[in-house]
Design brief:
It is a single chain. The protein is mainly beta. It is built from five helices and 38 strands. InterPro entries: Gal_mutarotase_sf_dom, GH-type_carb-bd, Glucan_biosyn_MdoG/MdoD, Glucan_biosyn_MdoG_C, Ig-like_fold, Ig_E-set. It holds the Pfam family MdoG. Pathway: Glycan metabolism; osmoregulated periplasmic glucan (OPG) biosynthesis.
Length: 572
């Protein structure tokens, strides 16, 4: 009997893409296929695994050469004079080839929208009723990966449905313009002795993950996951999973009833030429209110860039919807640290919303963990980009050496083409634990989507450390707040990073500070000797129980030289 230690690497951390609710996998547990296992180590209770479980885990992680176990056992059996069992044949079974293209996908989505919505097959109750611990005992055997027996630059592992993933999805392999459906087979998966005997007819696939040569040549590593409703996530080189993206948000504000979660009911994964940096995945979206055809062109690296081409076919008129939605987690940092009795300095996958608007401004809005659900809208015409960012990159900002929040990606949305008038929407939901996704951001066009229409959107998603913006102004490095000690009011400090635009003479800088309610006093601009940048400090006197929208701008000689800092505060 041995203990298994955590495996370092992007594919071994995160929540495995098991859906929106973060109920899937704890970030501190290595992920094996769909499953995670507890590992011995600081802060974790080790669980002893059998030799069979260990070997299955190692092979699933790619830590054993193909067929080593089978060949070794066969050789031992032959030496002992026993009957030799031939090694298992690995790989997936494919159906008959059918022509496939972006045009055929759009035609299928359009035809689907003309019919009534029919939910995809649901897994049987015995698969839905598995416990979390039971579901960790089954994982995909990576030796059966899609395209593993070819020179394709991309491979795909297949998640199994069950527990939180209650619907089956179809998976297809595409090569040379022909698609072949992947047949579900429970033999594609490995289990420990503790996994119950269940009828394989009661389940199917629930999603896919892509593997490629992300860090080292010939070493295939996970870098993107598609699973759960229209959720997907990716990482850049040396990063670990954090926030997620979705295909389409419907009814997020709750203005017209509960939020609707359409789903990707089928995926098509294209084989990639040897050495190619790009992977292509297509998906068919379906839901009560809309269908859609999605194409994802994924270039791994730092950042990993996903170019999205989406065509949406509404079944009904859509007025409350979001393009390029992002979902993240923010529990606390320096701005609300006092609310949490926690040994860590900060807990979040993202710490701010950044917007490059059509007016030429770069907006920075630190995230909040509010007392009630809050919505904020940032109106714009000619949006240049937006995203939920993770700016705190120093481990000292968290002091959580297992979750490694400093390695979570930021996610920047770059519109391709003119998205017209609308607003970037930010939804902040109260949360008391880091297992909950409580932050949502998306683009809401002013114009509704008419029933029976065809709506096209294209954009790029950058999964990396920062936003790919021009960098012409100083960016906000940090924000803090606290009650004044010897006078009334609340002080806010905003630290700007060093930047040539700030100039040599700090006295030439002007801070323009405003609030939507209450008053501002004691505005100061002074050097920050700790960073070499500039600190703006201001005291706000805000009426009790009334929200105040705070705004700070930094100018020099009638030119804006810093990001526009925005924040909401409720006076107490």
């Amino acid at each position: 009997m041995v203990q298994v230690q955590p495996v370092e690497g992007a594919g071994a951390a995160g929540r495995c893409g098991l859906g929106a609710a973060r109920r899937s996998c704890d970030a501190r547990r290595p992920c094996v296929g769909n499953a995670c296992f507890r590992a011995g180590g600081a802060g974790m209770s080790g669980s002893v695994m059998s030799r069979r479980a260990l070997l299955g885990t190692l092979s699933a992680l790619g830590l054993m050469p193909q067929l080593v176990r089978a060949e070794g056992e066969a050789a031992t059996a032959a030496a002992e004079g026993a009957t030799v069992i031939e090694p298992k044949t690995f790989g997936v079974k494919l159906g008959d080839p059918l022509p496939f293209s972006r045009a055929t996908l759009e035609a299928e989505a359009k035809a689907l929208a003309a019919a009534d919505y029919v939910p995809p097959p649901e897994v049987s109750s015995e698969w839905r009723d598995l416990t979390y611990d039971q579901f960790r005992e089954i994982w995909f055997d990576t030796r059966n990966g899609l395209f593993r027996d070819s020179d394709s630059a991309v491979r795909a592992d297949l998640f199994i449905a069950g527990l939180y993933q209650t619907h089956e999805v179809e998976v297809n392999a595409v090569k040379d313009g022909m698609a072949r459906r992947v047949a579900f087979d429970l033999g594609l998966y490995d289990t420990t002795d503790r996994f119950p005997q269940l009828d394989p007819a009661g389940t199917g696939f629930s999603g896919i993950r892509l593997l490629g040569e992300l860090v080292e040549p010939t070493v295939f590593q996970e870098y993107a996951v598609f699973q759960g409703a229209t959720y997907f996530r990716a990482i850049g080189k040396e990063q670990i999973y954090g926030l997620s993206a979705r295909g389409l948000a419907i009814g997020t504000t709750g203005a017209n009833g509960p939020e609707e979660f359409p789903l990707f009911r089928a995926y098509w994964v294209e084989a990639a030429a040897a050495g190619s940096a790009e992977a292509v995945v297509h998906a068919l979206m379906d839901g009560p209110s809309a269908t859609g055809a999605y194409t994802f062109r994924i270039r791994k690296g730092l950042p990993t860039v996903i170019e999205v081409e989406a065509t949406v076919y509404p079944r009904v008129e859509l007025t409350d919807f979001g393009i390029a939605p992002e979902t993240s987690m923010f529990l606390f940092n320096d701005l609300n640290r006092i609310k949490f009795d926690d040994f860590r300095e900060g807990v979040h996958d993202s710490d701010g919303l950044q917007i490059a608007n059509g007016a030429g401004e770069i907006l920075w809005r630190p995230l909040r963990n509010p007392e009630r659900v809050e919505m904020s809208g940032f109106g714009d015409t000619g949006l240049r980009g937006f995203g939920l960012m993770q700016r705190a990159r120093d481990p000292e900002s968290y002091l959580d050496f297992e979750a490694k929040y400093e390695r979570r990606p930021s996610l920047w949305v770059e519109p391709l083409g003119d998205w017209g008038k609308g607003r970037v929407m930010l939804m902040e939901i109260p949360a008391d634990k880091e297992i909950y996704d409580n932050i949502v951001a998306y683009w809401q066009p002013d114009a509704p989507m008419a029933a029976g229409s065809e709506q096209k959107f294209s954009y790029r998603l950058y999964w990396g450390e920062d936003a790919p913006v021009d960098g012409l102004v100083a960016r906000v490095q940090g924000s803090r707040t606290g009650e004044r000690v010897f006078e009334e009011g609340r002080i806010f400090t905003i630290d700007y990073a060093p930047h040539p635009a700030l100039g040599e003479d700090i006295s030439a800088l002007e801070a323009r500070v405003s609030t939507s309610s209450g008053e501002v006093k004691g505005v100061q601009v002074k050097p920050n000797p700790a960073t070499g940048g500039v600190r703006v400090a201001a005291t706000f006197l805000m009426p009790e129980g009334i929200p105040a929208e705070l705004r700070v701008e930094l100018w020099r000689d009638a030119v804006r030289v810093g990001e526009v800092w925005l924040y909401r505060w409720f006076g107490a």
